[in-house]
């Protein structure tokens, strides 16, 4: 005889974890937890609760960069126990300011400068999650945007890999009908090479974008540098600004060409 009973619906399990970061993404997740809890079973969130289950889960949100051996070991363990991994925030997706700093100074030197000559704990050059393990979804931001977080979570609950836009901030800026502060006020706005998602937060209040969402899809770095040099910024200013949030070195592989452009700008050719 056939049973009329339907199989019990399983609620997806979720874990929220952090590596080296400022906890900004954890706060955004915490703020949105009430909206998520009817649809997920929270297994682990050490930042927010003292009793945690570290067994296998469907979705793990991970904040922070890999900046020491403990981070790396923890990340590999989380990968083994998670069906989906979502890298949340610029640190996890791009390496953020700690990776930017590592591009300018050796990590051992930085440790001594910050913690003193006698410090001896192990550090690694800051890196992205995807440099070490497979990452299923990358949700950038510093911190992440609540609407993007909930949209990504909703897709994953239906077992769909979500689309996260990599179009530039300029797109959102134009949709808000903002005047362009790069063109009209000569401010060093990185909107043309930064991924959208924030709703053009900074230009909407008259402040130039400084790239906290990380690079957009196929960012035209040379063209961006050229425009900024035409407006009187030095190549050093531009590179510091572009690299502040850990943009990967391959984006700067045409550094020699940029330097040529700088020379041309200086000689007025
Ligand atoms: S203000 Fe910045 S983000 Fe807005 S359109 Fe101009 S360059 Fe793009
Ligand atoms: S406008 Fe740029 S700096 Fe400001 S929040 Fe958006 S991505 Fe970050």
Order of helices and strands: EHEEHEHHHEHHHHHH
Spatial extent as radius of gyration: 21 Å
CATH superfamily of the largest domain: NADH:ubiquinone oxidoreductase-like, 20kDa subunit
Q: What is the CATH topology assignment of the largest domain?
A: Rossmann fold
Hetero groups in this structure are: iron/sulfur cluster
Number of strands: 5
Q: What would you call the quaternary organization?
A: single chain
CATH class of the largest domain: Alpha Beta
Tell me the domain tally.
2
- Low-confidence regions: none
Task: State the separation between the terminal residues, measured CA to CA.
Answer: 87 Å
List keywords for this structure.
single chain, 269 residues, alpha/beta, Rossmann fold, 2 domains, 5 strands, 10% strand, binds iron/sulfur cluster
Structural commentary:
The protein is an alpha/beta fold and 269 residues long. The chain has helices at residues 24-36, 69-81, 90-93, 96-102, 107-115, 146-157, 169-175, 181-185, 221-230, 235-243, 255-267, and strands at residues 13-18, 41-44, 57-63, 82-88, 137-139. Strand 3 (57-63), helix 2 (69-81) and strand 4 form a beta-alpha-beta unit. Bound molecules: iron/sulfur cluster (2 copies).
């Amino acid at each position: 005889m056939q049973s009329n009973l339907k199989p019990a619906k399983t609620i997806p399990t979720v874990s929220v974890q952090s590596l080296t970061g400022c906890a900004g993404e954890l706060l955004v997740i915490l703020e949105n937890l009430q909206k998520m809890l009817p649809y997920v079973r929270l297994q682990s969130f050490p930042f927010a609760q003292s009793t945690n289950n570290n067994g296998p889960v469907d979705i793990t949100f991970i904040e922070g960069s890999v900046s020491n051996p403990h981070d790396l070991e923890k990340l590999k363990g989380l990968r083994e126990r998670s069906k989906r991994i979502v890298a949340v925030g610029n640190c996890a997706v791009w390496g953020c300011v700690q990776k930017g700093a590592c591009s300018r100074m050796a990590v051992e030197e930085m440790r001594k400068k910050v913690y003193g000559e006698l410090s001896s704990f192990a550090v690694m050059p800051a890196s992205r999650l995807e440099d070490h393990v497979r990452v299923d979804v990358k949700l950038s931001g510093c911190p992440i945007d609540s609407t993007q977080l909930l949209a990504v979570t909703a897709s994953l609950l239906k077992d769909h890999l979500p689309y996260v836009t990599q179009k530039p901030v300029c797109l959102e800026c134009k949709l808000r009908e903002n005047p362009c502060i790069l063109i009209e006020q000569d401010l060093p706005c990185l909107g043309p090479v930064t991924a959208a998602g924030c709703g053009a937060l900074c230009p909407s209040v008259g402040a130039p974008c400084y790239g906290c969402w990380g690079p957009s899809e196929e960012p035209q770095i040379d063209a961006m540098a050229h425009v900024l040099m035409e407006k009187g910024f030095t190549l050093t200013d531009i590179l510091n600004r572009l690299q502040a949030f850990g943009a990967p070195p391959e984006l700067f592989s045409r550094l020699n060409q940029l330097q040529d452009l700088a020379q041309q700008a200086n000689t007025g050719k």
